[in-house]
Amino acid sequence: MLESDPFNIVEGMIIAAFAIGAGHGFYYIRAEYPLAIKRIQNALAQCRKAGLLGRNIMGSGWDFDMEVRLGAGAFVCGEETALIRSIEGERGQPKVRPPYPTVKGLWGKPTCINNVETFANISAIINYGGEWFANQGTADSGGTKVFALAGNVKHTGLVEVPLGTPLSKVVFNIGGGVKDDKALKAIQTGGPAGGFIPASQSEMEVDFGPLSKAGSIMGSGGMIVLSEDDCMVDLSKFYLSFTQEESCGKCTPCREGTTRMLEILEKITSGRAVLEDLDKLERLARLCQQTALCGLGRAAPNPVLSSLKNFRDEYREHIVEKKCKAKKCVALIRYQIDPETCIGCTVCARNCPVECISGQRKTAHLIDQERCVKCGQCFEVCRFDAVERV
Ligand SMILES: Cc1cc2nc3c(=O)[nH]c(=O)nc-3n(C[C@H](O)[C@H](O)[C@H](O)COP(=O)(O)O)c2cc1C
Ligand code: SF4
Ligand code: SF4
Ligand code: SF4
Questions:
Q1: What's this model's pTM, rounded to 2 decimal places?
Q2: CATH of 334-389, one of 3.30.450.40, 3.30.70.20, 3.40.50.2000, 3.40.50.12780
Q3: Which residue's CA is minimally distant from atom 2 of ligand 4?
């Protein structure tokens, strides 16, 4: 939105500022989005020139201007109190609320913080009316929502749908269905701190209430399609490793909780866990969810809790049978060559980074399991499907 329709956001912010009597506005944009920064700065300059920003806007006697502040890429700086501190030039860490920013925000002044999508709606609501907007979505949430559709789906990209659209419609009608026509396993919504919605609930309407009831969030609008080829334990570990790394460390439940949870997930995916670890993982996740200071720590356990709830058998399989059915957990898989199928072309041996494949030309090759680092290169390069991942 910042890149393709910057004036819409500028207009929304000017109207919002006028409504609350604000004198100054900020765009907090991560430095990794130079195009968004350039387009907003360009839009602001044009508005200043046209008298839509600055002193005595259109002769109204009202002064208002805006500027862009760059974020250095910390996820937690999206949390409103951390964002305020970051703009103030302090370390971007959340603060206890209350007081809320609307009472005591930037430099102690009442501050309205909203998402770009919220500001983008304002001019349309004024142009077409509140009733028109409310009719677009559900009884609880009006309007549309943009999702970044990705993962194992045929067509990826940004998708805008009215709130209340079934998840299945986004995945199958818009996204064209699961890649390679595999079975849908789950849909992960809300970014790294979102939860997994199992395929059995894919008729769910996208809205804040149903998503949170299912253990997920709307969050940043990420929508990742997962197929039968995805491992829920491995994915939970992947998402948690992100939030663990992004934890600002201010409060114990999140700083220590995400680290200990990640350790347990690493134990499970490497075949070193026992069943009691599942109870520990669940207890820690709930503790973090209920007691962390900000939204990052409170949402970080979502992938863990939703996968434990809906895919617990997969966790048990990793622990008891030391098996990863989706063959994603490297420690639980191995590569072997079928001597009946191998024609001895030597391609795998020449591509193996640790030179652990032996065999003469035109004879079956063999992998030295002790030395194999499970990089999967042989599996990728064999044109005769002789390398098996088991
Ligand atoms: C850890 C964390 C990261 C966040 N990141 C963003 C973000 O990148 N962009 C954003 O608009 N809101 C982000 N938010 C939400 C904002 O803090 C804020 O609640 C939201 O932008 C309010 O706008 P709205 O009421 O218009 O939705 C984040 C929240 C948390 C807890
Ligand atoms: S929940 Fe995590 S990110 Fe939020 S204040 Fe606590 S340690 Fe920092
Ligand atoms: S690439 Fe395949 S066919 Fe060729 S030697 Fe290796 S396993 Fe055998
Ligand atoms: S998985 Fe990698 S390390 Fe192992 S045999 Fe194949 S190419 Fe070599």
A1: 0.93
A2: 3.30.70.20
A3: 375
